[in-house]
Amino acid sequence: MSDDMKKNWFLAMPFIIMDIFIRIQAGSTNYIRPTMIIPTIIFSAVWIVTIVSVSRCLRPILGRIFYGTCFTLFFSLFFTHCVYFLYTGFFFGFRLTESADEGSAYIWDTIKNTNPLIFVFCILLVGTAAYVLIKFPKREKKSDFRKLIRSLVIFVLVLLVNPLLLGRANSALEWDTWRNPRNVYQNFNDSNKCMKICGLYEYSLRDFYITFLMPEKPDNPKELAFLKEIYKDEKKHGKNDFTGVFKGKNVIFLQLEGIDSWMFNEKDMPNAYSLLENSINFTNHYSYYNGGGSTFNSELAVTTGFLTPISYSKNPYTFSTNLFEYSLPNVLKTEGYSSNAFHMNTGEYYSRELNYLNWGYDGYHSLMDDEGRSDANAQLDTELILNESFYEKMFLQKQPFMNYIITYTPHTPFTLSSPMGKALAEKIYGKGTVPSLSEEKVARLFATETDDMIGLLMQGLKDNGLYDNTVIVAYADHYLYTINDKSILDKYKRTDNNLINHTPFFIWSSDTAKMNVDKVNSQLDILPTVLNMLGIEYDENHYIGNDIFDDSFTGYAFFSDYSWYDGNVYVENGEVKEGTNYEKDYIKETNDLINRKIQQNDLTLKYDYFRRME
Length: 614
Prior knowledge:
- This protein has 23 helices and 14 strands.
- With 614 residues, the chain is α/β, with parallel strands linked by helices.
- It has 2 domains: 3-213, no CATH class; 243-555, Alkaline Phosphatase, subunit A, CATH 3.40.720.10.
- Strands 5-4-6-1-7-8-2-9 form an 8-stranded mixed beta sheet, sandwiched between helices. Strands 11-12-13-14 form a 4-stranded antiparallel beta sheet, covered by helices on one side. Strands 3-10 form a two-stranded parallel sheet.
- α2 (34-57) packs across α9 (191-213) and α3 (60-88) runs antiparallel to α6 (116-134).
- The longest helix is centred in the first third of the chain and has 29 residues, at 60-88.
- The mean pLDDT is 92.
């Protein structure tokens, strides 16, 4: 190695150390894609090489000043990332400076309680940089402007071209857009994934640019006027026969992965079915389906009262920086409730950990993250209750509480050769004695596993004295569109239009009389309905859905193509496709209502309007 190369490595060392250390921290985020490996190396390399090259192109005194300034700047960010990540599990973003006043009182305590090893490492790092400055390589007294300009041109060209190596961004709405490195880089709304892709230096520049310098798309005055008209006056929800019937009770939201209407029966799901004896059963419930992650979209709808935009392509998990002041956990928090979410999958999946924190939950708990589980048995829903740590968090907590449990087992593929299928079949039949089963029978087997979890859940409530003081809100996230043999669906339900989205939804309480409600509704109506039953006042304008028990709500569900159904007529492209005994004025009025609701939903999210209202 030539002397010149050794000098370059000498200057680069403090910057390399910072980048490697940050990447080690980012390694705890379970996210890596082949297309990001080379670009992420290039991002860090071009920054470090450029800092070193510019430092050496300048006169010695100017080179020292430039080098020292760059180190001081990035070291400050490096230290901030280390401390913030240690306490939150997320990397720092400049957007947080917008709420700096709220956290300023805790900064000193946070720093004081930081792991001492961080301070030791940082002191050694500063010492290394100081030694580099003292031993800064000598060169001619004049600056080499040709080399300087060449270095800067290469730097800019590489930073412009390198993102293309991340792959092509999804132009259409797809469920796994959150996995696409190019989308992550462009949206830049998940700090942990962005740090893994960009490294310390590119992350800092892009974060600063997006937060402070990126030109905002001009507001549309008509759109803002529309929102202002909607939100200008409070529309306090009125009382009805179900207002406050569950006041003060604990609430468990049970989101049932893939439990279609044909699977919800006494044979396949005896525990869940038996709950109907003390339940309000919503027989005309429809799950909103889209291609952008329907499971998470149900979480978004039930928790915030909003769903994935219909008029433009955005995934439901990309609104992690929006303010959801009136979300389920935030509203319940004002009533003294704690709130926790439980699932098998990682917090990184669908950026759940980031979103649940933003929605106001006290914690998102993952078997894979919290318990380090990666075995096939971790995908069995009964593990959510059998796990001692989860059991304690669910049942042995201060009351009142709200638990949001997301099941997983009825998930594709429905084969015995899949790890989960094999694990479940051996659990039931024993090793070596598993019979051959069709896809439908395996799907039903999976549903029974979810039902076994429900049985354990109910027993946990009884064992811990919670049975008579807890409400269970159970619903499917979507119909079983993941099944390969679509003829199975044809046997049991309408499949030629959006009525295929018919799914189970019921609310159980030990003191509830059995009741069937046939008014049409969707996930959007769950949040306002539950708030009313808990006796919590709310502004109807803050949600897209309605309290199902409100006499003024006639009942309807709309879908991603603007079609809708009210129990009597099914309307598509503004025209009645099915149904009789209707008036043309009613169809027009409902078409206008649905369009207005969709516009409110989409624009509220687009403009982060609740933040503007503060």
